[in-house]
């Protein structure tokens, strides 16, 4: 395996730069309010709403979520979320132009149907939601009934992202997530009958008890449901940060080589089925907007992964939600109680953030193009950023090392990854990262 010695390195997923561990409390509610007020009229905006509740915990989960067996905490949280939406909107003299809305979790569909419809209506009341806006929601197929399906359609949802992970019974038992093929297929059919045609599946490799054959079987079963997109992520085992992952036995996890084989086998199946391979871990039908964005050099990357979202600002709502404005990043208080207290006091619940420098913007642009295109023209990107190119000297030295290892090649000022090095794209992106800790245990393995 080319670059095999990099497989077990801990590296960021680069859904932002700098990454969240570098955020600080120096960015507070007053800073965020100033940034919101400074957004020019006509700023295109995306909204992310975080719902940090599930009915049960999947042992592999790396999200900020908690188990809620009763509806009370969820109802209380939604009241706070509605107040936060009003607080953010109040910072503006005119409503922001919203082109994308994404509900993530946790399990967003844990909300009662009428509550979900009301929440989207509230967003439309406070923001100028474009008639053709993409409204996407993450779905646990085990928790979606006909009533919620109808509510999603009534609210204008037009993209559904379904968590599948694996259909292997041994794997499902090891990760505490029992989900049948039939159950998933029924949800997909129900969504399409309701008019929600755009369906994406999330799969994971590197799970406990997972084998090469079970990965292939899961992909084959998923293909029968004809999703428009796939995301195939590598399981990040970080029990020092996610205590529930301690229920997963380390000896049940595949090693770096096995993880690489699983990822490549699944990728090759999808390519053979006609899907376009996108960046590190996404796949889409050739007619899908994401595949077209890749072909046209318009693909982007944010906290939801690869995206067609080209908006100028991303506003996060809910505990732990992260937003990105032209000035920098903001993250809400992570602990639900603290988040609720801040909002109850009438304050934006900003916990920390990061103010971007000119050098950060340069490095972010280089990293995004590497992650999206598996290539970057360093000179072309530098020409767009007024930064002394000398700051990239250490990065260029790292790239020379990667070139000797066969992970990249140079074509003038262009850096290109060969196809067989695709899974190591995070290692190449890391060459441009000036903030990366030498022992980043909070990050996932490179492959």
Tell me the structural class.
alpha/beta
Shape verdict: globular
Poorly predicted ranges (pLDDT <50, ≥5 residues)?
none
Give the % helix: 25-40%
- The quaternary organization reads as single chain
Terminal Cα span: 11 Å
Beta-strand residue percentage: 15-25%
Strand order of the largest sheet: 10-11-9-8-7-6-5-2-14
The whole-number mean of residue pLDDT values reads 94
Question: How many strand segments?
Answer: 21
Total number of helices: 14
Main sheet attributes: strand count, strand direction, barrel closure:
9 strands, mixed
- In angstroms, what is the radius of gyration? 21 Å
Structure description:
With 447 residues, the chain is α/β, with parallel strands linked by helices. Helix content is 35%, strand content 22%. Strands 10-11-9-8-7-6-5-2-14 form a nine-stranded mixed beta sheet, with helices on both faces. It has a three-stranded antiparallel beta sheet with strand order 15-16-17, covered by helices on one side. A hairpin with a 2-residue loop joins strand 12 and strand 13 (305-307). Helix 2 (72-89) packs parallel to helix 3 (113-126). The chain is globular, with a radius of gyration of 21 Å.
Structure keywords:
447 residues, nine-stranded mixed beta sheet, three-stranded antiparallel beta sheet, 14 helices, 35% helix
Quick rundown:
The protein has 447 residues and is an alpha/beta fold. 35% of the residues lie in helices and 22% in strands. The strands form six sheets. A nine-stranded mixed sheet has the order 10-11-9-8-7-6-5-2-14, with helices on both faces. It has a three-stranded antiparallel sheet with strand order 15-16-17, covered by helices on one side. A three-stranded antiparallel sheet has the order 18-20-19.
């Amino acid at each position: 395996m080319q670059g095999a010695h990099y497989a077990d390195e801990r590296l960021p997923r680069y859904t932002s730069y700098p990454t969240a561990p570098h955020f600080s409390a120096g960015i507070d509610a007053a800073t965020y309010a100033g940034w919101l007020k400074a957004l020019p009229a006509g700023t295109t905006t995306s909204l992310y709403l975080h719902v940090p509740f599930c009915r049960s915990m999947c042992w592999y989960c790396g999200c900020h979520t908690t188990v809620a067996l009763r509806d009370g905490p969820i109802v209380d949280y939604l009241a706070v979320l509605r107040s936060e939406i009003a607080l953010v909107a109040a910072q503006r003299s005119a409503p922001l132009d919203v082109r994308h809305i994404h509900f993530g979790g946790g399990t967003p569909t844990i909300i009662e149907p009428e509550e979900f419809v009301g929440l989207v209506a509230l967003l439309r009341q406070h923001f100028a939601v474009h008639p053709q806006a993409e409204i996407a929601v993450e779905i646990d197929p085990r928790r979606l009934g006909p009533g919620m399906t109808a509510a999603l359609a009534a609210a204008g949802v037009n993209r559904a992202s379904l968590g599948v992970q694996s259909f292997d019974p041994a794997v499902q038992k090891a990760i505490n997530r029992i989900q049948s093929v039939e159950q998933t297929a029924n949800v997909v059919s129900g969504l399409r009958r309701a008019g929600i045609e755009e369906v994406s599946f999330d799969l994971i490799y590197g799970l406990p008890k997972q084998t090469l054959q079970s990965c292939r079987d899961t992909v084959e079963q998923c293909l029968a449901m004809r999703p428009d997109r796939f995301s195939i992520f590598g399981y990040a085992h970080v029990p020092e940060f996610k205590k529930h992952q301690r229920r997963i036995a380390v000896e049940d996890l595949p090693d770096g080589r096995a993880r690489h084989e699983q990822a490549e086998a699944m990728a090759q199946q999808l390519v053979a089925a006609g899907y376009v391979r996108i960046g590190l871990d996404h796949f889409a039908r050739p007619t899908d907007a994401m595949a077209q964005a890749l072909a046209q050099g318009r693909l982007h990357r944010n906290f939801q992964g690869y995206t067609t979202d080209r908006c100028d600002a991303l506003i996060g709502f809910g505990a732990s939600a992260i937003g990105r404005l032209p000035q920098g990043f903001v993250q809400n208080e992570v602990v639900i109680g603290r988040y609720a207290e801040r909002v109850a006091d009438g304050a934006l619940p900003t916990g920390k953030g990061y103010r971007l420098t000119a050098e950060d913007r340069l490095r972010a642009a280089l990293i995004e193009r590497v992650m999206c295109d598996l290539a970057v023209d360093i000179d072309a990107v530098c020409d767009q950023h007024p930064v002394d190119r000398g700051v990239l000297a250490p990065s260029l030295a790292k790239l020379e090392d990667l070139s000797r290892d066969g992970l990249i090649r140079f074509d003038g000022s262009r850096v290109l990854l060969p196809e067989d090095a695709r899974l190591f794209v995070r290692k190449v992106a890391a060459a441009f990262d000036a903030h990366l800790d030498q022992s980043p245990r909070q990050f996932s393995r490179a492959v």
